[in-house]
Recover the amino acids of this structure.
């Protein structure tokens, strides 16, 4: 395919060279005469393992060239891939001026092009940028319509500098955000021969995935450093701690705990987060990530309260009150906290939780329920139907299997607040997820 690449920095150069090596005809466009000269001389404009040999080869084979002529680059190609920089402004916001310039240039060239053209944004941009800011520029500069005259896609880059070429040929995944199927199909076809799962979704999801990955990586680094700093202060090697922690692929290095849902709770996580935060403070070690975990968790309970109260109803039915399905443990359950807030504000709350009900009558938690949270215990009902009949708002608090059918039966007049993630199994007009 004939492909124009806008921006010959780390991303654009690696992408252009690797696509040229895979047989595509690439013209790179940049504002820097120096970079253009280097590439046309077969020399790499950046330092990257394996790039020198590859660039020399593809330039000699006339599969890659560079130019300042953006108009010809668009007219002579089927696809334009935009890889210009998106730096931070001084207030931390994203500077999209280079992207806007390039989209304007591409749009103006498209005005004079009869053939369909695909525009792909590969620069990292916040969700909403492509559809909200760049598409209007492309349409107004070209006088043409997306989905008819040209296609649009988002294709975030996941390369790591220093292993960028290796990463290009062996990615964990290729993410495609597509305006329409035609755009996605064309984009997917340029990666033929690269053996990795292709994830196709909306443009906004693709934009968000890129930020989620990078912020997750930053979180991992900051977390590892805080564990290391506390460890050092108590005379142990944090690297040994983290090496062993990372061997657990079930809970630690896995998708477990990564799904958006309600606040964490139970007898261990809150207590242990507080204790390690306290230890850090005692040692004089700054732990801004760890010490803000409880704040983050509390804000999630606040969200739950806001969602329930926004329904404007008084009668609330909770299905599940223990911190997760299959347990009667109510210690530090964020659902208890939510119930307490609602009850305290005068909402008429009824609760069904068969495990907690058993505990109230027979179990080891009987004392806790009767003495520590008697106000909550008094709201428990033995019969799920009573809770559903009473409720104008049903809050599904945990993923107990018995609740999935109940939720369907409650459709219609009742508002449903899903703190767990049943929504994808349910069609209900008045439903609200906690963070979806
Ligand atoms: N560097 C990475 O490892 C990496 C990885 C993934 C994603 N990204 C993202 O990819 C994007 C590009 O990053 P980079 O590191 O390659 O940036 P870079 O600064 O190395 O390169 C950007 C290039 O765009 C050129 N440019 C600016 N305005 C232009 C215009 N109007 N027309 C043509 N070219 C123009 C600049 O001259 C420069 O050569 C950013 O959004 C970045 O966040 C970078």
């Amino acid at each position: 395919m004939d492909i124009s690449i806008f921006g010959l920095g780390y991303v654009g150069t690696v992408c252009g060279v690797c696509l040229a090596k895979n047989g595509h005809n690439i013209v790179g466009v940049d504002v820097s005469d120096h970079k253009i000269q280097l590439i046309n001389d077969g020399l790499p404009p950046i330092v990257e393992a394996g790039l020198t040999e590859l660039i020399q080869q593809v330039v000699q084979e006339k599969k890659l060239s560079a130019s300042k002529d953006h108009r010809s680059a668009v007219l002579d190609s089927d696809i334009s891939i935009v890889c210009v920089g998106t730096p931070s402004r001084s207030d931390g916001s994203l500077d999209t001026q280079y992207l806007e310039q390039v989209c304007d240039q591409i749009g103006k060239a498209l005005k004079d092009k009869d053939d369909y053209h695909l525009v792909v944004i590969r620069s990292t941009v916040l969700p909403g940028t492509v559809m909200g800011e760049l598409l209007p520029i492309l349409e107004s500069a070209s006088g043409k319509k997306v989905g008819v005259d040209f296609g649009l896609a988002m294709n975030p880059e996941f390369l790591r500098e220093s292993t960028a070429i290796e990463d290009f040929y062996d990615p964990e995944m290729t993410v495609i955000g597509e305006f329409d199927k035609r755009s996605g199909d064309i984009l997917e076809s340029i990666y033929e021969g690269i053996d990795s799962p292709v994830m196709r979704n909306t443009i906004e999801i693709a934009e968000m995935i890129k930020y989620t990955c990078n912020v997750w990586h930053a979180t991992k680094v900051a977390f590892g450093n805080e564990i290391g700093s506390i460890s050092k202060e108590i005379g142990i090697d944090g690297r040994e701690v983290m090496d062993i922690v990372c061997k657990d692929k079930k809970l630690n290095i896995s998708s477990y705990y990564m799904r958006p849902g309600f606040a964490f709770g139970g007898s261990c996580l809150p207590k242990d987060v507080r204790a390690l935060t306290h230890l850090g403070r005692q040692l004089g070690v700054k732990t801004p990530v760890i010490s803000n975990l409880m704040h983050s968790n509390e804000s999630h309970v606040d969200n739950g309260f806001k969602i329930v109260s926004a329904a404007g109803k008084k009668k609330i039915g909770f299905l599940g009150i223990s911190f997760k399905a299959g347990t009667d443990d109510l210690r530090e359950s964020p659902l208890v906290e939510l119930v307490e807030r609602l009850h305290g504000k005068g909402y008429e709350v009824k609760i069904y939780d068969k495990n907690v009900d058993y505990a109230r009558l027979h179990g080891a938690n009987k004392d806790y329920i009767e003495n520590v949270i008697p106000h909550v215990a008094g709201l428990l009902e033995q019969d799920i139907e009573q809770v559903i009949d009473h409720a104008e708002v049903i809050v599904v608090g945990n993923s107990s299997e018995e609740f999935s059918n109940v939720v369907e039966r409650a459709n219609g007049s009742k508002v449903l607040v899903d703190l767990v993630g049943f929504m994808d199994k349910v069609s209900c007009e008045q439903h609200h997820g906690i963070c979806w």
The chain has a mean pLDDT of 94. Residues 2-202 form a domain with the Rossmann fold fold (CATH 3.40.50.720). Residues 203-233 form the longest helix (31 residues).
